[in-house]
Design brief:
about 140 residues, globular
Length: about 140
């Protein structure tokens, strides 16, 4: 894992005890939470794609939106943490993002490589609370159904 930081590996593997130790012993910026691996995934994105809820909760509690780099990946795709969570993550991982960050921070109007918006991905999952959350928080023009 040459392009992984300790924070990224602990997040990917769901080692919350390691995440707790790292975030308590180091300045949070020293942990480089915005670092991206070879495909552009950050520590948060790795925790989301591997469905590690406790790691997602820990990261979203310890770091702010800018530190977590919630936006698009460096590989040029438009994948965001919210799009990844809605596409892959279990509902509690999505909840952790929706509860902590606002629409702008989450880039809630982003479109993935397949042209899917957060609303489309939420509808695909059929999980009504996420659909309601997005519909309630976005302006009609931003819904892109």
């Amino acid at each position: 894992y040459p392009e992984y930081t300790a924070l990224m590996l602990a997040s990917r593997l769901g080692y919350t005890d390691v995440l707790d130790l790292l975030t308590s012993k180091f300045d949070l910026n020293q942990l480089n939470p915005t670092a991206q691996n070879f495909v552009g995934s950050t520590a948060l994105m790795l925790a989301l794609t591997h469905r590690h809820l406790r790691a997602v909760e820990l990261l979203t509690t310890k770091f702010n939106a800018n530190q977590l780099n919630l936006g698009a990946k460096k590989d040029g795709s438009s994948e965001t943490a919210l799009l990844m969570a809605l596409d892959i993550g279990p509902p509690p991982c999505v909840d952790a993002l929706l509860e902590k960050f606002d629409n702008e921070q989450l880039n809630a109007t982003a479109v993935d490589l397949m042209g899917q918006t957060p609303l489309i991905l939420a509808a695909k999952s059929g999980y009504l609370p996420h659909i309601e959350h997005l519909v309630d928080r976005l302006d009609v023009d931003q819904l892109k159904p």
